[in-house]
Amino acid sequence: MKSARNDKSVAIALEGVNMSFGTRRVMHDLTCEFARGKITVILGGSGSGKSTLLRLIGGLIRPQSGAIYIDGRDVTKLAESDMYDVRRDIGMMFQHGALLDSISVFDNLAFPLHEHTDMSEDDIADEVRDRLDAVGLANAEDLLPGQLSGGMLKRAALARAIIQRPKILLCDEPFSGLDPISVKRIEALLLQVNQRYEMTTLLVSHHVATTMRMANHVLVLKASGAVSGSPEEMRASADPLIHNLLSDELTDNIDDIEPEGGAARA
Ligand SMILES: Nc1ncnc2c1ncn2[C@@H]1O[C@H](COP(=O)(O)OP(=O)(O)O)[C@@H](O)[C@H]1O
Ligand SMILES: [Mg+2]
Fold first, then answer.
1. Which atom of ligand 1 is found nearest the CA of 49?
2. Phi/psi of residue 112, each to 5°?
3. For the chain, which ranges sit under pLDDT 50?
4. What is the DSSP string of 41-60?
5. Is residue 178 part of a domain?
6. Which listed site, 25, 48, 187, 254, has its alpha carbon 20 to 30 Å from 173?
């Protein structure tokens, strides 16, 4: 087997990663890889380490040992100052910490470009409007996040995650709290973004039916390590845990619906 770290079709590879929080060991010698430009769905029981995996790849936390290769470079060995370059290529759409409440949608998207690039005001405005257009929020640029519905907020968060045209997009529960129509809309947008910008996309969600429809590859986190394959291979798996995780595929396991357009949000 050729090493994943030198294989151009592999964007991200973990080798022997160990991650503990205090005495709680979440990852034991985890080895897995993610295909460039594809959508990989990460499945696993609650507490299996899905969010931790995304935070490790996003460089928000570091493992105790092991390597995390992004485009062939082990980011666990980088100094904090060099992590900045790596993070710029990674868009994150996480459940918490999305938009700043006190500034407009436009300014939320422009902010990273002002901070991290020397682009002109005109170029920044072009980029912001291009991304807002892509997520169907062209008319919402002057609104504050608090004035958006749940579905619009998720779309704004997606637009901000991709404002710097990252090579990698990490999404943790992008559908949670949304009504079925908004789920469909975010699903379509994620597929569109993946294709338009050829982003390597990692997706964690308990909306199993939706994500299995979107997946090019599936990675299942188990206590004994990671299992990966195509959606078809996963559906044909005899493994009881995988069978159990996919049984939600029939129902999509939607538990927390919030009507689009409603002002109520936490
Ligand atoms: N910052 C942290 N401090 C302590 N424990 C944590 C922290 N982050 C995650 N954990 C623990 O690690 C395990 C995996 O968490 P997580 O990756 O969030 O699981 P998942 O997203 O698959 O539900 C859980 O037992 C969780 O309590
Ligand atoms: Mg999680």
1. 17
2. -65, -30
3. 1-2, 256-266
4. EEE--TTSSHHHHHHHHTTS
5. yes
6. 25
